[in-house]
Amino acid sequence: VQLQASGGGLVQAGGSLRLSCAASGRTFSTSVMGWFRQAPGKERVIVAAIRWSGGTTYYADSVKGRFTISRDNAKKTVYLQMNNLKPEDTAVYYCAADSTWSRIMTSADQYDYWGQGTQVTVSS
Question: For position 23, what pLDDT does the model report?
Answer without folding.
Answer: 96
